[in-house]
Amino acid sequence: MARPTAVALVGRLVVDKVVQKPVLDELMARRNAVDALCVGLLTHPDDGARELCAELLGDMHSTKAVPPLIEALRDRSVHVRWDALRALSKLLYCEIGWWLRIEGYKSQPGMMHRRVSAWWKRNRSRVWW
């Protein structure tokens, strides 16, 4: 039997709102886990799976995840948007308080996306890892 792709594993991460630990372990052992989680963050039909992708990306310390996490600030789910903000805060070692003063992640995802995207464009050259 062929080994499933990393993107296929992301598709099986959450079943009936329960994280599948063996699938998670197999995915995290892959070299391309960040890429697969970025795809899952932006395309998975389940809100819980997209939330999990955002959380995991925040723990992986890869700046490759920053643009997809910024894009996830437009997600229809407030929970995905919140987890994307938290992941960005972890990845970029910055306080998200200034992004949240108006709690735009709840009611104004377009504005939040523009604000964080503009910050990234101004500061990405300062990210040293």
| Beta-strand share of residues | under 5%
Count the helices. How many?
9
Describe the biggest sheet? 2 strands, antiparallel
Task: Sketch the topology as an H/E string, one letter per element.
Answer: HEEHHHHHHHH
Helical amount among residues, as a percent range? 55-70%
Compute the separation of the termini in Å: 38 Å
- Shape by Cα distribution: globular
Which class best fits the helix and strand makeup?
mainly alpha
Overall average pLDDT? 85
Structural domains: how many? 1
User: What is the spatial order of strands in the main beta sheet?
Assistant: 1-2
Estimated radius of gyration: 15 Å
The unreliable regions are none
Number of strands: 2
Key attributes of the depicted protein:
two-stranded antiparallel ribbon; mainly alpha
